[in-house]
Description:
By secondary structure, this protein is mostly helical. The chain contains 23 helices and two strands. Strands 1-2 form a two-stranded antiparallel sheet. Strand 1 (366-371) and strand 2 form a beta hairpin. The protein is flat and about 80 Å long. 33% of the residues are buried.
Amino acid sequence: MTTAASSPTSVTRSDAPIYDRTWLKTLRNALIITRREVKDSFSDWRILWPIVVLTFFFPFLAQFLAARFTGFVTDFGAEIIGERTIPFLLMIVGFFPISMSMVIALETFVGEKERRSLEPLLSTPLTNTELYIGKTLSAMIPPLVSSYGGMTVYLGSLLFGDLAWRPQPMLIVQIILLTTVQALVMVTGAVVVSSQTTSTRAANLLASFIIIPMALVIQGESFIMFIAPDAESPNGIGALWAIIGGMILIVGLLLRLGNSVFNREELLGRMIDNLNLKAIFAGIWRWTRAVDAKGTPARNLVEWYRKGVKMSLRNLGAASRIAIAVFVVAFVGGYAIGQLPQWQLPLPRDTSFQQPAELLGRYVGISADAINADGEANAVDSVPIPSRLRGMLFFIETNGRILIAATILSLFTFGVAALILTPAVYIVLGYIFGQVILAGYNPAFMFAAILPHGWVEIPVIVLATAAALRLGAIATRPPKGMTVGMAWTTAMGDTLKIGLGIVLPGLIFAGFLESFVTPYVLYSVLR
Length: 527
């Protein structure tokens, strides 16, 4: 008689280490769940009927609208608007069916829990990873089938209909990829929500955090399709490739998050969600004052800086290295863009800096055109101190507003927003630096305009970016022995420590240097 220790069930139990299994075996076991769920979906007429309608009826409606709109704008000599509308409608035809994925994905776990069919599923010998992957794939396949079918019907009506549209093949590939990754983002996000809520009502409410960002992404993609200068390029639209890459990254983060927080025991045992704001804020305040991993509060400000802030800086680890690399890539990328002929500015090569020097001279209180016999510049009325203080506050407010926005958005984008908003200005700096070099100017004035305050401002911004990145991404892989909530609370405490202890004082000091020191250095280089 076979013992429990040697039975197949015990070998494939849910707590078996994932590293003991190959990914091929994991996928094969996950597809067991996928086949069962897809079969049930296609046997339900309430799911099958919308798929048929969206696959066959909506494409013909879009084709009718495209033909009418193209004819309308052609009468006014705006053919290009009609041509750019056609691929946008193709993307919309693909997007509407995948919106069904939200409904199916939100039902994956919490729906079965309410129907009391979840316990038999969770009692199977499949691991948490196999269950999660199987459920995710099953929520994705029916909408994608409808989406691909609808785009095929619409594309066929365009190619062989009255419009006789002949697009670049790579543009069609981009639209198909966009549809696929959008479905992946929506499904993976909805499955995370379904596994962490206790009712379908709560899941549907939380789904707005997925639908609203995706709607904004669709609007951004449509805007790019209309204005992209490389819309007719055989290599596709460059900005759309960037969006596809960013969405693939988000899908990976969502899969990692969902698999890390999915726990079948908690899913069965949790009946109601309690939100204890007092405990959350108390935990954040505790870790903001903490000077060690046990949460021991600092006894004074010196100990808080010497131990607490130092510990938070060490915790940044890989996030700081990633932030530095992104800033370097942003600057180099801006410089490389500036070397392209179509992006070069027609700067004159013999321009004098006398006029900017005179303006700076008035700002700092030195007359650039009144030199005495000893070779010293005569003093004139400078900009009043209150005006310089207002300039200082402007610099502090501008940098602080960007960093706060990047930190808040990082909470909803797994840290990706921090790597987009803050390095953007360094793309511009790299681009301007490249234009200055191409025009034959001495770039010394750029170093004089940046380095006097940049030696403080740039490291501070990099640290703030790294802290925001870690705060958003820590949910995808909590430290060993910590739940997602505990990991996020400690990361928020570290972020506040770095923000209050280093970033805020650094921005104030950098603002002072930028308002009171940089103009003098720049003036001395330009005159």
